[in-house]
What does this fold into?
Amino acid sequence: MPPTQYAPSGGGLNIAYQVFGAGPLDLVLVPGFISHVEFAWQEPLLARFLRKLSAFTRVITFDKRGMGLSDRDPRRETPSLAERMDDIGAVMDAACSPRAVLLAWSEGGPTGLLFAHRQPGRVAALVLLGTTARFSAAEDFPEGIPRELLELFIDTMRQDWGKGVGFELYAPSLANDARMRSWWASYQRFASSPGAVSASLRMHLDVDVRHVLPELAVPTLVVHRTYDMLVPVECARYTAARIAGACYLEQPGEDHMYWLGDQDGTLSAVREFLAATPDGAPIAALRQSRHRPAAGWESLTEAELDVVRLVTVGMTNRQIAARLHLSPRTIQTHISHIMGKLNLARRSEIAADASRRLR
It folds into this structure.
């Protein structure tokens, strides 16, 4: 896990952030409704996504004010979009990043859209994952979510916060995964309190940045799951259709968490999109592979390391296959190669050695 640092932002508050990767293009990950830059690394699939993203970008992650490891503001219940934009600029300044890609997920979408509109000189490109310019439905926006459903959602989140509430909506494909559900419950408690998260969600009932869409002047990619259980796909189609030159990718599935489902498909789409932008040309020149020794931990490929990490948390071949969108036979082949390269005979030996080396 990269070290956590603090960036001074407006109102004398400090914003927790991390920087990792050595790619030729900076990328700021604008968080959704909750985040915790350190606890995020405890979920293997999220950690995998972040590692692979850092293979072709220099990633800057942060906790918006009032969430995770960042300061709470005693003056107000939840920050405004303007203050959240200030936090983006603050972490970019602290990380010595004059210009970066913004990758905004879920609740972070409107903030990313506004920042790109008001400070286009600092935004190399905009990537929107599972988000929209407006969440609640209106007479001129039937694509949105009915307000009464959003109100019910917020009340439920506040009442059952910290118990894994909403997991079936955020990760329906893993609804029966007890380990992932436990991580989500802990993530909620680490990231925010019930009152703070409900105030943040309630503020977004009235957020509407649709007016900036036709005026955006940065390359934009919109990625959305067809059956997203939280943000209707019609919202993403609406957003993409109103941004000049926007690229739109609709993926199968129903998970709202951007790191679930076909991770590699999402990452490949982001990489190819960025490589085609004016700032992203150096990405196309990055080498896709590296020379490795024949044996030992340094000999393991990225795919094999992914399998090792999931073996370490106790997953079976079938569970690993489902997580990585591969066949159980392919997973067994990876495990056989891992054992051969590490001179180990049992899965338990892989897990024991990995727990010491891959923390």
In short: Strands lie at 5-8, 14-20, 26-30, 58-62, 100-105, 123-129, 220-225, 247-251.
